[in-house]
Write a structure and sequence with these properties.
The chain is an alpha/beta fold and about 375 residues long. The protein folds into two domains: about 260 residues, Zn peptidases (Aminopeptidase); about 110 residues, Alpha-Beta Plaits (2-Layer Sandwich), CATH 3.30.70. The chain contains twelve helices and 16 strands. The strands form four sheets. Strands 1-2-4-3-5-16-6-15 form an eight-stranded mixed beta sheet, with helices on both faces. Strands 10-12-8-13 form a four-stranded antiparallel beta sheet. Helix 3 runs parallel beside helix 4 and helix 4 crosses helix 12. It starts with a helix and ends with a helix.
Length: about 375
Amino acid sequence: MPVLNRIAAFAPEMTEWRRWLHRHPELEFDLPQTSAFVAARLREFGVDEVHEGIARSGIVALIRGRAPGPVIGLRSDMDALPVGELTGKVYASETPGRMHACGHDGHMAMLLGAAKYLAETRNFAGTVALIFQPAEEEGGGGEVMVREGIMERFGISQVFGMHNAPNLPLGHFQTGPGPVMAAVDSAWVTVTGKGGHGATPQVCVDPVVAIVGMVQALQTIVSRNVSAVDQLVVSVTEIHAGSANNIIPESGWFGATIRTFDPEIRDLAEERFRAIIAGQAAAYGVEVGLRYERGYPPTVNDPAKAAFAAEVAREVSGPAAVVDDVGRDMGAEDFSYMLEARPGAFLFLGIGPGEGLHHPAYDFNDEAAPVGASFFARLVERALPL
């Protein structure tokens, strides 16, 4: 698996960086140790500028090439998850209830590796903007960074990001034109009836029965309101009601996630969700409160940039290890906001067999870091040739 020789030489350093970050997971926008560690490494490498405090804890660092030219953005996320770690590794999280269960520690190591190489060689004409982003898992840090003007402030004309993929062969890449990940919306429904004894339901208004009816009816949005060839997921993922088997509760609530690609389908799903909840509430004689929130938009690759990224990936891993027409994934990613602001592409990098993302026994494969760093470095050299 070819990687750039210089990057291969400092692969052990990348492993050290990654494992330090893994031991010190932080959440959302509150990343003091993480951002300080990243900024310190960037300054050690001799990058030209380090701008901190963007979106509270985000960083944009600049590396200028040997000649003037455009600015290309490379992004890594930095936040961890509120998950208790079960890897048993010697470098396991030192903070109970938190871990890098999605591999953002590996993403940072890859981008830091590319930064070290690019700061040394500078074999490109233009500028690299290294974007270290907070709050991908929760909070939309990508949106905040875009809203705070990083694209305009640093003159970024194109932007690329990458995510590790467990159980995709080590060093294999996947990407494609157009939408590659879904928009994600969320809903919370509170149902209030009249509680009482489980033996006398006739004098109660049972919110449990109403919730069951609503959950079942919501499944018809996919099966009866959109074409079978359209892509939509409506999943009720939590239900909370009751405290004992002989008590009809006064109220209960449930939550759902809604995943789409098409804006019209997204609007339809929300419209039908609201109508079904209102109709079922009337049918069961309960009162409802609905909070429906639009979340991350779909992650949409620019076709030309995705094709170019696939070419670079083939240089790193070989033609047989690159898929350039990957299917759509119903997961979501707030890199989508950056792709709305500038053309670019998002890729997936295989890290070999192991537990899936967000699993408490997940761990990033350090062997993948030099591959990802080599991809980012070659992407810059190919996009900004001298």
